[in-house]
Amino acid sequence: MSRIGKRPISIPSGVTIEINGQNISVTGKLGKLYQLLPSLIELKWEGDTLVVVRENESRTARERHGLCRTLVANMVEGVSKGFEKRLSIQGVGYRAAAQANKLTLSVGYSKPVEMIMPDDIQVAVENNTQVIVTGTDKAIVGNVSAKIRAVRPPEPYKGKGIRYLGEVVRRKAGKSGKK
Fold first, then answer.
1. Range of the domain at 45
2. Per the domain annotation, does 119 fall within a domain?
3. Quick check: is 53 in a domain?
4. What is the pTM of this model?
5. Same domain, 95 and 154
6. Distances (CA, A) of 135 to 11, 24, 35, 58, 165
7. How do residues 107-155 score in pLDDT, each as one tens digit?
8. DSSP SS3 for 37
9. Which CB contacts under 8 angstroms, 24+ apart, belong to 105-114?
């Protein structure tokens, strides 16, 4: 039995869940999310908690049990609290600026890189070097953060580039010179 899949999902106040067959919609103060669950997985109410149950013990059902529980739990957390990823920009002259739904990165290229953000993602910049990506869908927040990091990933010699806050970049020694 899946250890993750059998844990119940507690529903905080202010979050409503509608189950229509295999479609689930979760509504909260930050928005509304939808998910289509596989046919082998069911959601059942037990008091004020939601439990993910699989129909049989087939390999496919067991594989998807924990996944579906995590997806639903992330939906509940996303509409109630939201998700946030922080990125740090390091390098001389490297900076970021955010306007409405556009992020402009000046990271050593001949022209600034402009990125248009999806509608449900908010981007903020602190001190010109800290980029904060927030949203309700954990997958989209992580995907947008990865795309921002991919503009200029940290290089191993000087450590310049865009990295996740707290990410450790292994440094290499430079040229050793002639002997």
1. 9-80
2. yes
3. yes
4. 0.87
5. yes
6. 19, 19, 16, 35, 17
7. 989 999 999 999 989 999 999 999 999 999 999 999 999 999 999 999 9
8. coil
9. 105/148, 105/151, 105/152, 105/162, 107/151, 107/152, 107/161, 107/162, 108/152, 108/160, 109/152, 113/151
Alpha carbon distance 27, 20 (integer Å): 14
Q: Are residues 103 and 63 in the same domain?
A: no
Same domain, 114 and 144: yes
Terminal-to-terminal C-alpha distance of the chain: 62
Number of domains in the chain: 2
Judge whether 72 and 65 are in contact, CB under 8 Å: no
Task: Report the amino acid identity of residue 84.
Answer: E
**Residues linked to residue 46 through DSSP beta bridges, in sequence order:** 49
For residue 74, what are its two tokens? 């992330």
Which H or E run includes 32?
strand 31-36
Q: Tell me, yes or no, whether 153 lies in a domain.
A: yes
Residues 22, 75 within the same domain: yes
Longest CA–CA span in the chain (Å) reads 75
